[in-house]
Design brief:
Blueprint lengths: L6 E6 L4 E7 L9 E3 L2 E5 L5 E5 L5 E5 L14 E4 L2 E6 L2 E5 L6 E6 L15 E8 L2 E6 L3 E6 L4 E7 L7 E2 L3 E5 L5 E5 L5 E5 L11 E3 L2 E5 L4 E6 L5 E6 L5 E7 L2 E6 L4 E4 L3
Antiparallel strand pairs: 1-2, 3-4, 4-5, 5-6, 7-8, 8-9, 9-10, 11-12, 12-13, 13-14, 15-16, 16-17, 17-18, 19-20, 20-21, 21-22, 23-24, 24-25
């Protein structure tokens, strides 16, 4: 249960009852990942825990050193082949899912500042995966991509912003602190375009679908932007409340709003 609930529950879908539940030391900041008969969780204090999916038995836990201040936003928890990928501060870490041992670590940003608040650069979910590359945003610091096959940073670009990013096999796109959208080439991080038509519209994280960038704003509009030029193609209205998140499912963009609305958009 991501958010402020410090427990994890496993439900039996057939019987409709709770099979087991576990109390966790601090709140969960990413949706649990189920793989290989295990449930993996990432908590606010950067702990990674693995539980047996059948009985809830804790198999291992991983604690990594880092800055004492942590970010109470969605974190990064995903996978690449047989490696668990987790956000640890401003770094992506590759973890052995069987033993809970660190395989590699790569920085997306270098925290800077004179105090803990200024140095806060935790990775913000959702991260996006394209082939062997996993890209993510470091809070108010940078956007970058890591080669998960090699376990090394490919590129990063200094840019403010607090939301997750979007990507396809050509570009990585993100908004900054003033809601200026920028796109970088996935392969090398070269700037592809910048668009300032949405400044101060409190944008959601973007997604990329069928050569279009979809991004929501505080008035409930979903803007469709040309992936290659950054020019606005059109916009769609939802229910007038802020767009909280946009997720992709089988070629459809699912838009969730603050008022509880759920809208499906197919970009053509």
């Amino acid at each position: 249960l991501p958010g402020d609930t410090a427990r994890i529950e496993h439900h039996e879908l057939v019987a409709g009852r709770v099979a087991w539940k576990k109390a966790l030391p601090t709140p969960v900041i990413a949706a649990p990942l189920v793989a290989g008969e295990r449930v993996f969780t990432l908590t606010l204090d950067r702990q990674v825990l693995a539980f047996d999916v059948q009985d809830g038995r804790k198999i291992w836990e991983l604690r990594r050193p880092g800055e004492p201040l942590t970010l109470a936003k969605a974190g990064v928890l995903t996978s690449y082949k047989d490696t668990l990928i987790v956000g640890q501060g401003s770094r992506l870490a590759g973890v052995d899912p069987v033993k809970g041992q660190l395989r590699w670590e790569a920085s997306v940003a270098t925290p800077r500042g004179t105090n803990e608040v200024e140095r806060l650069a935790d990775l913000v979910g959702p991260a996006v995966r394209q082939g062997e590359l996993i890209c993510a945003r470091a809070f108010q610091s940078a956007v970058g991509c890591v080669n998960a096959e090699r376990g090394s940073a490919l590129w990063n670009r200094t840019v403010g912003g607090t939301n997750g990013i979007g990507a396809d096999d050509q570009i990585v796109v993100a908004g900054d602190a003033s809601d200026r959208l920028s796109a970088w080439k996935l392969a090398n991080g070269d700037l592809a375009w910048t668009g300032d038509q949405f400044q101060l519209r409190k944008l959601s994280e973007p997604v990329v679908l069928n050569k279009q960038v979809l991004v929501g704003d505080y008035e409930g509009y979903v803007h469709l932007v040309d992936r290659d030029t950054g020019k606005t193609r059109s916009r769609l209205e939802t229910d007038g409340s802020p767009v909280l998140t946009i997720a992709l499912l089988n070629g459809t963009a699912l838009v969730a709003t603050k008022s509880g609305g759920l809208f499906a958009i197919k970009a053509e």
